[in-house]
C-alpha cells in the first residue's frame, strides 16, 4: 500500500526525469553519473513509495504509465523550483538580486544615487531598489528603525553617531534658481540686497538649505525675506517658479539638472555674489544591522562614484573632484 506521505529525494526525482528523457535505465544512470544497479535500486524505492510502477518495460524502451506521467508532471515542477531556488540563492549571495531601500537628501540623490543605481541595474537587472528623498532627520529615523539599508544624510545632534558606520562625502553647494525670464536672470551679479525684496520658496524652517540661505542674509546685516512660501516639494517648487518671479534655493545638482540638456526646463541660476554651502553629508548604515550583499554592492558603488568627478547620467558635467 502506498505511503500517504512520500519521503522522496531530489536525486530520485532527477532519475525519474532522466528515464523519461532517455527511455533506458542505463542511459539515465549515465546522465546522472550513477551505476545501473544503483539507479535500478533507486527506481524500485520510488515505485515502492508510490505503490505502483512508474514505467512499462517495453522492447522499444521504458514508457511512463498513467501514474508515471502524473508523477513526472509533478517532479518536473519540483525540479524547476529547486533549480530556481539554487539560482535565487546564488544571485542573492552575489548581490545580483534581492531588495534594497536607500535614502538621500536631494543633492546626493541626484549626483550619486542615479548613476550608482543605473550601474547596479546593468549588473543586477532583477534587483528591487526603492529610493526615498527626504530630510536628514526622517532618513535617520528610518535608518535607526531598520526601514532603510543606508542613507546619504547629515548626522543630527539627537542621534548617536556611534550607531552608524560613517563615510564622509562632501558639502552641498546651494544655487538660487528662477525662471529664465526672471527680471534678474541677465544680471552679471546679484546681491542679497536685490534678492531680499523678491518672493521666495524655501523648505521648512530648520532645513539645511533654508538655514544656509537665511544665514547669508544675516551675514551682511539683512533680515530674512518677508515673502516666503514654505514647501518641501521640489516638484511644487518648480511648478510655482515656472509661473512667477519667485526664487528658490536648491542644491546645485538639482539646479544643473533643470537648466542643462536634456532637461532644459526653462530655468536659470542667478549669479549670486555670496557663495552658499551646506554642511557635509555622510554615507551611513547601521553598525548593528549587517547589509545584504545587494545593499553592500550598491553602497560600495555609491562610495566609488563619490571618488570620481561627478558625471551625471543625464549629461551634466560638474567640475568637482572628490577625494
Automatic annotation (TrEMBL):
Organism placement in taxonomy: Bacteria, Pseudomonadati, Pseudomonadota, Alphaproteobacteria, Rhodobacterales
Pfam short name (any one): LysR_substrate
Organism whose genome encodes this protein: Paracoccus alcaliphilus
Keyword Iron: no
Protein name per UniProt: DNA-binding transcriptional regulator, LysR family
Entry's family note: Belongs to the LysR transcriptional regulatory family.
Keywords: DNA-binding, Transcription, Transcription regulation
GO cellular component: cytosol
Domain HTH lysR-type residues, every copy: 8-65
Keyword presence, Transcription: yes
GO molecular function: DNA binding; DNA-binding transcription factor activity
